[in-house]
């Protein structure tokens, strides 16, 4: 049985489409279990029916024609209860309904198991026997295992349109594909699938005729690609800041690297033609990166592959086709690269969808900088079949709808429209103070990371920067930036906001933020070498960053320093020791410095309980609700599988935040919240009710939160907090908050949250 199971699963995985996969299942199951019939019914949610989609044993004319209404018959019973049903005589069961089209009469034995994905019943897998037969437990689990295997194939087929075609339904689909992460926003547009330009893997070895001419041709190809990269970089210059453009410089450096160029030339000298030699060098590099299994190094591997294809294209003297992009381009690919993104004129680019990658991928970083919604990490995205298809991106929830139904399209167009109108209307609030109706001031700060964030943050009326994530400039480079280079970057942010405060967080790498040039391999990176832990183990990196930050503040004095991932006081003491050392060194060097206020992030549960001890050492606290939620609820913030469980409104998270605020206020220390929760207007009301001293969020959320703050009195938000306090789960809290916003005429703010 185990062997059959393994072989069937392999066959199903290799099947080119869903119809084939289903047909393999029914045939193999019928053989393996020695039954008279095996069938698969799929759910047609539109018509609320179960449809016979594959069978071995029944009349094949019945396929697609036998449709059982929801809740009817034994199939309906299995689906309704989401449990298997094992009957030696089907007709004895009260739910049994005779179906004439398939000539069911003579069948007695029945075993049906539900096909379930993410708690949704997608269909039912059924076997029938003419005689009475009670199936053994082992047979039941065999069917279960296959059903679980089918579930994945079915849910992906739903998104690619396979199911719709099988159901002979309209061309519209209502299935959503779920990604791991992305960048917020909604987009409606048409897919433009980008694919590798030339197939390097398919290049054969070939004897070289004229070595010198081959080498010259190779040099010319490399020079041509370099020109292309410079053109792309120049095209982005007006859109992206210098530090993001550095990404293209990194690619050019890689292109010129000795390994790549000399390795290929060596191969040519050894007798292979340029494309064959290039294929070998590129393959070596790609394998080296991929073998390390580090997400950031894999990112580099795709850069190498991309460069290899571009050189090959030049070698093959296929002049690069200037592709035309639709005005509403949604860039789709197996692994969309930053350079592919740069090829699309910015005004025409509406969204990005990539089967691989995460929000930390270069392409996602660029998309965020451009304010374009993206969905990353959609497993088994049927890329090859998406070109030209209409799609809707829901960047808020990392979802993609392919061939959206009219209702979904309209819903998202309305959303886009409403968002745009609301954004326009809210401009009127820019100059107005962030205070409640009864005059309680709640400073709203901006979260930044890219220089591109500065202008929008200033324009939306942020009262300063509550969180400057310094790791982002580190991510788009090829090596650690030097002290002076860092100083210049930090200076731009500090200067732009002076005299308003700018809270600069020291390097918070590790977890899912891995530097390509500083690989860390761990089984459990979120519980591993992260944030301050790396900084303290590498004082040279930390000291050079702190020196750069302190020097950037000379003459401005609006700097506040923030330490990430603190889990105990020893880390604070060590970090303070290093900061003091950097400060004194700089004084000795003649810099005229002010010693900044220093705070810690509360994002590890242990820190929640040590606020009093920490307060003896630092000046303020900033709650990082993204990590605090992840660690309190044991839910990986990047895992789509458990994304439903990630909720900052979980009562346990709310209690933790309130405890931090109360403990900090007892010892006179202010508390800010800088996780995504702060940018959700509904959640912001609760935080205000708890007495949080300031909020920091992305500039896109700021005026929305300000609108909420300006619409209530302190007595009202305190009452709201007490009302929410008794709820036992996040859904109830959210429902109350949304009701409150709607009753106050602020329904437009509901979407900005989850
Ligand atoms: C947080 O964890 O809430 C936070 C603000 O930090 P980051 O999202 O950068 O981990
Ligand atoms: Mg964090």
Please sum up the structure shown:
This protein has 754 residues and is of the alpha/beta class. The protein contains 27 helices and 22 strands. The site of magnesium ion has 4 residues, from helix 22.
Helices and strands in order:
Layout: H1 2-14, H2 18-33, E1 37-44, E2 49-56, E3 67-69, H3 73-81, E4 85-87, E5 109-117, E6 120-129, H4 137-160, H5 162-166, E7 176-178, E8 181-183, E9 186-193, H6 211-236, H7 242-256, H8 258-269, H9 274-291, H10 295-315, E10 329-333, H11 338-343, E11 349-354, H12 362-370, E12 374-376, E13 390-394, E14 399-402, H13 406-426, E15 444-448, H14 454-459, E16 465-469, H15 471-475, H16 483-497, E17 502-505, H17 532-537, H18 539-552, E18 559-563, H19 569-588, E19 597-602, H20 605-608, H21 611-615, E20 620-623, H22 625-633, H23 651-666, E21 671-673, H24 681-690, E22 694-697, H25 699-709, H26 714-725, H27 730-743
Parallel strand pairs: 9-10, 10-11, 11-12, 15-16, 15-22, 16-17, 17-18, 18-19, 19-20, 20-21, 21-22
Antiparallel strand pairs: 1-2, 1-6, 2-3, 4-5, 5-6, 7-14, 8-12, 9-13, 13-14
Helix pairs in contact: 1-2, 1-4, 2-4, 6-7, 6-8, 6-10, 8-9, 9-10, 16-18, 18-19, 24-25, 24-26, 24-27, 26-27
The chain binds phosphoenolpyruvate (PEP) and magnesium ion.
